[in-house]
Amino acid sequence: MSYILDSSAIFEAVKSSRVETVSGNYTLELARYELGNTLWKEYSLYKKINSEELKQLIILFKKVFNLVKLIELECCEEKILDVAERLRITFYDASYVFFAQERGIPLITEDEHLINRVGGYIKTLRLQSVNHT
Predict the structure, then answer these.
(1) pTM for the whole thing?
(2) Domain span at residue 93?
(3) How far is it, in rounded angstroms, from Cα 30 to Cα 130?
(4) Other CB atoms within 10 Å distance of the CB of residue 129
């Protein structure tokens, strides 16, 4: 089975050494920027990592993005906005939800708020519940 992973799921996959879960599945090009922002926060705001760790993580995430199938928004902005409005979620989150629904595949996320908002609209899973073979 295929999945769409949001940036929180990709971050968790790397953090928990479950990169195999990412391999061959989908994410949005948007995830690259969201993860870059997460790394920036970990370094600049929270001081959880040093500059050398930041550089190594950036290299690692570049490799991870070579393992996934990237989806572009492809001029679906109006449909994504409709999902965002209907579910009262951000455009970012609605992008993942829209493509999961369009492809008929589950969304893997660690975002509790998103899971609660989209229940019944699409199937959502947490990374820990996914067995990758």
Answers:
(1) 0.93
(2) 4-129
(3) 22
(4) 9
